[in-house]
């Protein structure tokens, strides 16, 4: 083994990438090497990925790019799938962990408070209702009454 050769992970903590369909995303391969490694992307099934014009492209530097797209162009095979990257040079070959890539759509939604009834002097519990399509992306950070924060 040549002492000057190596393969290593630059960032192997990338486990999930969620991106907006209106913006797209650029995902660098989390591996590198010396001498320069050949970087390739695959689906988690092991299938090679291919360029899809204006949808998905793998750049020469090993960066995976998913372009912005309209809801009608959504393809779960591309926009909601697991990918991984490999780096290969004379030192050998390494594989990144699977990276979950998921597109989300920007769409209008309304957060509301569920109506509650309580008698004066009793406790009333209010619940913030967030549409299920955005629940995992929305966090309640404060409550307000007539634009005044309630602590």
From TrEMBL:
InterPro entries according to UniProt: Ig-like_dom_sf, Ig-like_fold
Highest taxon of the lineage: Eukaryota
Quote the Gene3D superfamilies the UniProt record gives: Immunoglobulins
Protein name in the entry: Down syndrome cell adhesion molecule-like 1
Q: Which organism is it from?
A: Apaloderma vittatum
Taxonomic lineage of the native organism: Eukaryota, Metazoa, Chordata, Craniata, Vertebrata
């Amino acid at each position: 083994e040549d002492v000057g050769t190596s393969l290593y992970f630059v960032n192997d903590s990338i486990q999930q990438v969620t991106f907006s369909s209106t913006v797209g995303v650029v995902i660098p391969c989390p591996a590198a090497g010396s001498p320069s490694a050949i970087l390739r992307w695959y689906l988690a099934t092991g299938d090679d990925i291919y360029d899809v014009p204006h949808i998905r492209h793998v750049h020469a530097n090993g960066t995976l790019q998913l372009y912005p797209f309209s809801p009608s162009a959504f393809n779960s095979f591309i926009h909601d799938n697991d990918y991984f990257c490999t780096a290969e040079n004379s030192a050998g070959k390494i594989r990144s962990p699977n990276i979950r890539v998921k597109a989300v759509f920007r769409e209008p939604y309304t957060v509301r408070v569920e109506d509650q009834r309580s008698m004066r002097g009793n406790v009333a519990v209010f619940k913030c209702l967030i549409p299920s399509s955005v629940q995992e992306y929305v966090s309640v950070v404060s409550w307000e009454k007539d634009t005044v924060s309630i602590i």
